[in-house]
Design a protein that fits this description.
single chain, 225 residues, Rossmann fold, 8 strands, globular, ThiF_NAD_FAD-bd, ThiF/MoeB/HesA, molybdopterin-synthase adenylyltransferase activity, transferase
Length: 225
Amino acid sequence: MGRYERNIKTLSVEENERLKDFRVCVIGCGGIGGYVIEMLGRLGIGHITAVDGDNFCESNLNRQILSSNKTMGKNKAETARDRMKDVNDLIEVTAVPEFINKDNILDIIEGHHVVIDALDNIETRLLLQDACEKAGIPLVHGAIGGWYGQVTSIFPGDRTLDVIYEDKDQKGIEKTLGNPSFTPALIASIQVSEAVKILINKKDTLRNKMLVVDLLSQDFEVINL
């Protein structure tokens, strides 16, 4: 219990013990996803599936916790797996060094208790929402751009991303606003807290609601959807 003793009182002993039995799939291992995997692993989530077909490049170094001079050119999912061997060798991390598509997504997410969206484009997010609905798996969505971020929890049948991204041809704002180091870390932490609440059946998730964060004005607002 020494490893997890600081979890206790935030989580009960029973809740903490249950963490090892959960399977969480993280789609995207870059800015948001790297932090998500780091936090899930330190908490003690028993099995994490890390999914990303991309390799690290120099422009990732400003914000992606898994990127370093030593990991340049390496696959992001495989790097996440190797990192977790050092952080918490009690958990199992499966690396899937692939981009998701309509042909592989259901096979990748099958058998997980929660899926976390750490993607960077709207089209693939909508594909992920469809797959999670078919598989009956809750999805925790997060997105960032510059000083701004958003998080919502989507249960099968909610179709929340259809409301957020009503214009399916719109482009994400991160290409225009950039992404500093602090926004992905914050949004990832909120996504992880949402995932834990879903897993241990805590109330007050962001289901049918979206937390919108403006770090420039330090404004945090929950919008009913």
